[in-house]
Design brief:
Number of domains: 1
Order of helices and strands: HEEEEEEEHH
CATH class: Alpha Beta
Strand order of the largest sheet: 1-2-3-6-7
Largest sheet: 5 strands, antiparallel
CATH superfamily: Peptide deformylase
CATH architecture: Alpha-Beta Complex
Number of strands: 7
Strand content: 25-35%
Number of helices: 3
């Protein structure tokens, strides 16, 4: 396993639409293992392949986390996800993102979702999710379509965050 570099906004690669995974291979499983290692190291609760420069419809998440007191990790690899249903009720969560470090904003999303996806064996699975899990899945799926959580907030707040990130990148180089 290896730590992968996480792309930080603004970067045009984060706006790319990810392509479906044609087949779940050992290469895909190795990518998933590297993504989990990267996500846990960050630390984060979700990571989409495009955030590490791989334009595939693939995400990993663990809303329980690694090593939280009394909780066992619950890692999930979700390949080619498709939301099949969303609730009429909404939830608001303060979201952050490994590609937008140190910035957070309240985002409104459907409170419950159902989705179908492929697991690491290439088998179709269905999942109902609510709360933080539903929010995390929707957040990571946005990445697959070239969206960031800041695309769900006001233009004023979004531009403020992006200006700060540009300034940080200039200072780092």
């Amino acid at each position: 396993m290896a730590l992968l570099p996480v792309i930080v906004a603004p970067d045009p690669r984060l706006k790319m639409i990810s392509k479906p995974v044609a087949e779940v291979t050992d290469e895909i499983r190795e990518l998933v293992a590297d993504m989990f290692e990267t996500m846990y190291d960050a630390p984060g609760i979700g990571l989409a392949a495009i955030q590490v420069g791989v334009q595939k419809r693939l995400l990993v998440l663990d809303v329980v986390g690694k090593g939280q007191e009394g909780e066992d990790p619950e890692p999930m690899a979700i390949i080619n996800p498709e939301i099949t249903w969303v609730s009429d009720d909404d939830n608001v969560y303060e979201e952050g993102c490994l590609s937008i470090p140190s910035h957070y904003a309240d985002v409104v999303r459907p409170a419950e979702i159902k989705l179908s996806y492929l697991d690491l064996d290439g088998e179709t699975q269905e999942l109902s999710a609510d709360g933080l899990l539903a929010t995390c899945i929707q957040h990571e799926m946005d990445h697959l379509d070239g969206l960031l959580f800041v695309d769900h907030i006001s233009a004023l707040k979004r531009n403020m965050i992006l200006r700060k990130l540009i300034k940080q990148k200039k200072m780092a180089s």
